[in-house]
Amino acid sequence: MCLAMTKVAGPLIRLLCIVDSDEKPSLGYVYDGMYRARKGIKLIFKNVKRLYKPYTLIIKDRWDRQLRQRLHSAAYFLNPSFQYDQVNYYNKPEVVQGLIDIIGNKDICNKSSVAMNEVRLYRGQLESFGKPIAIKMAKEMQPGQYNIKLL
Question: 93-104 vs 70-78: helix axis angle to the nearest 10?
Answer without folding.
Answer: 100
